[in-house]
Amino acid sequence: MKENVLVGDIDKLHKNPIAELVQAACAFNSHIEIISEGKSINAKSLMGIMAFGLKPGIEVVISAEGDDESQAVESIKKFLAC
């Protein structure tokens, strides 16, 4: 399952947005990736998310594969869109 989302101001709503995003992704069994501008990272990788450089206003694709993929995509989408 894939879905596009426009990243909101996650720094404004979360004390530690990168760690909180990884925690949210790790709550699911599915493999979750965040894709943008030719880059694809595992949403469960703290270092990957840090290197990815999520900024307000960029569009990303959230991709998940697994038994809880629809819930995973929806959760990550809500987190990023704020």
From TrEMBL:
Iron in keyword set: no
Any Pfam family: PTS-HPr
Domain (HPr) ranges: 1-82
Protein origin, superkingdom: Bacteria
Gene3D superfamilies: HPr-like
InterPro entries in alphabetical order: HPr, HPr-like, HPr-like_sf
Keywords: Sugar transport, Transport
Function of the molecule: General (non sugar-specific) component of the phosphoenolpyruvate-dependent sugar phosphotransferase system (sugar PTS). This major carbohydrate active-transport system catalyzes the phosphorylation of incoming sugar substrates concomitantly with their translocation across the cell membrane. The phosphoryl group from phosphoenolpyruvate (PEP) is transferred to the phosphoryl carrier protein HPr by enzyme I. Phospho-HPr then transfers it to the PTS EIIA domain.
Name listed for the protein in its UniProt record: Phosphocarrier protein HPr
